[in-house]
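Subject: Re: docking follow-up (flavin mononucleotide)

Dear J.,

Thanks for your patience while I sorted out the input files. As discussed at Tuesday's group meeting, I've set up the holo structure prediction with flavin mononucleotide included as the bound ligand rather than trying to dock it afterwards. The sequence and the ligand SMILES I used are pasted below, so you can double-check that they match what you have on your end before we go further.
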Amino acid sequence: MITASESLRLRYEDEVNPDGSGDVPDMLAVMLARGSCRSYRDGSVEPGLCSLLCAAALASPTKSDLQQRDIVILQDPAVKAGFVELVGAEAWVRGAPNVAVFCGNNRRQRQLHSLRGHDFVNDHLDAFFNATVDAAIALSAFVTAAEAVGLGCCAISAVRNEAAAVSDLLALPDHVFPVAGLAFGYPAADAPAISMRLPLSATVHQDRYTETDAEAVIKDYDLRRQAQQPYGHQRAPDVFGMVETYCWSEDKSRQYALPERRSFGAFIRSKGFNLT
Ligand SMILES: Cc1cc2nc3c(=O)[nH]c(=O)nc-3n(C[C@H](O)[C@H](O)[C@H](O)COP(=O)(O)O)c2cc1C
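The structure tokens for the complex came back this morning:
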């Protein structure tokens, strides 16, 4: 595995560790060297290890101890095939040996109210938001745990492209909804590619939010990223054409210049949430 200093340099150039020194605990070195994995060796992760990773994921913090997140592990080949079909645009998912879906679950909370005879009087956006945050934290903890034992992972937000169909496939009841899928398995490559991040000087603030010169920060990041990690293809050239220098800001703004997931709000409402 590459050293923490090298990971820091690749991700943030010399911003964090300018003199290249500094030992960090092994766990941090693994976290700094991480990267999403979309290509796996044959062979799925043993059920015992899957359970252990779920246990680690669900040991993560949870808002007010409410535990509003669940994990659906796809084991039945027919369910997995149905899932792959639904996230079809993400062709690499087909080769993922293991898939899980992280769900927000506000259902149990409402069941507690029925059980204890107390009205649930907080039926507003926060109910949805809390469950989403809990699911996202559990997903992140699962990834950290899986990567710590040498597995590769990649989240799949494409589950929200077809949220209603994914929900039907997994028999999710009211107030339970998919936040993201997660593919995981033994990685095909020895080490993941390290994806450069925006500088900490623009994304970490002291005491107050400080507006940086966004244009300068983005231009500089675009240039550095292009030099280090050029994009292999341009997004939607049929719509936007081809440009000579294709950079992060072009890719990200193209991404959200095209409509997606317009029905997600309606899906969440159909699950019984009041989003006001
Ligand atoms: C919530 C979430 C959803 C994601 N969904 C997808 C996805 O649908 N398809 C995909 O290829 N990558 C997906 N990713 C992976 C990101 O693209 C990846 O984390 C990002 O490009 C940064 O790269 P890195 O993880 O290698 O550092 C997702 C990541 C997160 C956190």
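A couple of observations from a first look. The mean pLDDT is 96. Residues 35-36, 38, 90, 154-158, 180, 195 surround flavin mononucleotide (CB under 6 Å).

Let me know if you'd like me to rerun anything.

Best regards,
T.
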